Amino acid sequence: MVDDTAPAPPPVTLRRPVSLRRTERSLPIALLRAREAVMGPVREMLAQSPVNEQKWRVLRVLDEEGPLPLTLVADHACLQAPSLTRIMRAMEDDGLVSRVTGTADRRTFIVCITDRGRQVIADHAAASNALFARLEALYGKDKLETLLDLLEDLQAVKL
Amino acid sequence: MVDDTAPAPPPVTLRRPVSLRRTERSLPIALLRAREAVMGPVREMLAQSPVNEQKWRVLRVLDEEGPLPLTLVADHACLQAPSLTRIMRAMEDDGLVSRVTGTADRRTFIVCITDRGRQVIADHAAASNALFARLEALYGKDKLETLLDLLEDLQAVKL
DNA sequence: CCCTTTTAATTCATTTGTTAAGCAAGTGAT
DNA sequence: ATCACTTGCTTAACAAATGAATTAAAAGGG
After folding, report:
1. Separation of alpha carbons A102 and A69, rounded Å
2. Chain A interface test: which of B1, B29, B44, B98 (most A C-beta within 10 Å)
3. Residue B2: how many CB atoms within 10 A of its CB?
4. Number of A:B CB contacts under 8 A?
5. Residue range A81-139, pLDDT digits in tens
6. Which residues surround strand C, with CB < 7 Å?
7. What is the distance between the alpha carbons of residues A17 and B66, in angstroms, rounded to a whole number?
8. Closest to A154 in 3D by CA, of B42, B146, B35
9. Is the pTM of this model over 0.70?
10. For residue range B17-36, what is the model confidence (pLDDT) as tens digits?
11. Could you report the per-residue pLDDT of B67-126, keeping only the tens digit for each?
């Protein structure tokens, strides 16, 4: 019945957890869980669109800030350079953005949102705002504003 | 951009130019940027360990909550089922966790952290707590507690 | 009991994240 | 000007995320 050659099961002792903060109080984990909690409807919205989460962030950033150097697009959209390279190729193919070579430094590119890219935003702005309104209603307007203030501050912290 | 000079009339939903929130005020984007802002040192810490971000979360969750059904591990560690399948295989091979088939429902698994897995946490608990202390100092203890409170509430919101 | 519908977990295909390496263009010191 | 060095972007290789399809067990209804 019992196989002598089978590896012994790893030792599992019932013990108290080592002294770490509760995961709800770990900032990285809490930020991740909070994001997951609000991303469900956003993903549904984007499923109705020609872009995914990442491309949506690129469009939002460009629509808000205007033409931007590629490195700043990466920073502001929270994308790594290699990912952005791939995404830029796809978005250019789809006519959502365009790029021009920088004049001063010919290594750099300036990225522009196109009318077509802006149209994608316009097509989903109502749904996006509706989601935010629902969140405000469920979570509380004041709490949401306070949370956004605190998050904005946190982004500025230089560890 | 369409002009919107008229004060908001009652039928406010249609034909009104829709503009979006600033990206700093978009909760999904703000949460993502805030997380990126704090993850740098955490990644450095985990680079010194045998686990990555995802496995670290699994260990933290199991250490804190004890043996858990696989689906709850996925929920609490913010991992999708297919990802967790792959990660579980690797972590079992490394002897960090073990699983037993559920007694009532034989489709399910209960996941346990092993002594070895707990040791990984113990080995990095000091560094982890030091990072948190540094964040407290730079960002402000009260602000951090408020932020964590708000994030904890947000996780509970059911959209 | 069968039959249909769920649920848990896995697999598969495709895209994205991550890390390291590479290349071309800019910078600066001697 | 030349050389080493840095910077901006790309490529490549592999791990992880995502979404759809699959298998197995459980649950519910006739």
Report:
1. 8
2. B29
3. 9
4. 196
5. 999 999 999 999 999 999 998 888 889 999 999 999 999 999 999 999 999 999 999 99
6. A 52, 54-55, 79-83, 86-87, 90, 105-107; B 43, 47, 69-71, 81-82, 84-85, 88, 102, 105, 107-109
7. 8
8. B35
9. yes
10. 448 889 999 999 999 999 99
11. 999 999 999 999 999 999 999 999 999 999 999 988 888 899 999 999 999 999 999 999
Please list every residue in chain B whose beta carbon sits closer than 8 Å to the beta carbon of residue A20: 60, 63-64, 121, 125, 128-129
B102's tokens: 């559920």
CB pair distance less than 8 Å for A39 and B28: yes
CA atoms within 13 A on the CB side of B130: 9
Helix axes of B70-77 and B81-93: crossing angle, nearest 10 degrees: 110
Round to whole Å and give the CA distance between A135 and A145: 11
Our CA-based measurement puts residue A35 at a distance from the nearest CA of chain B, in whole angstroms, of 6
Residue B107 has a CB neighbour count (10 Å cut-off) of 7
Neighbours of B4 (CB within 10 A): 12
d(CA B31, CA A154): 10
Residue A101, C-beta contacts closer than 8 angstroms, at least 6 positions apart: A108, A109, A110
Rg (CA), chain B: 21
- Residues B78 and B45: their CA atoms lie apart, in Å, by 20
Structure tokens at B77: 């560690």
Closest Cβ–Cβ partner in B39, B125, B143 for A19: B125
For residue B96, give the 3-state DSSP assignment. Answer: coil
C1'-nearest nucleotide to the CA of B53: D16
Instruction: Output the distance from B81 CA to D28 C1' rounded to whole Å.
Output: 26
Q: Among B38, B118, B132, select the one facing A15 at the smallest CB separation.
A: B118
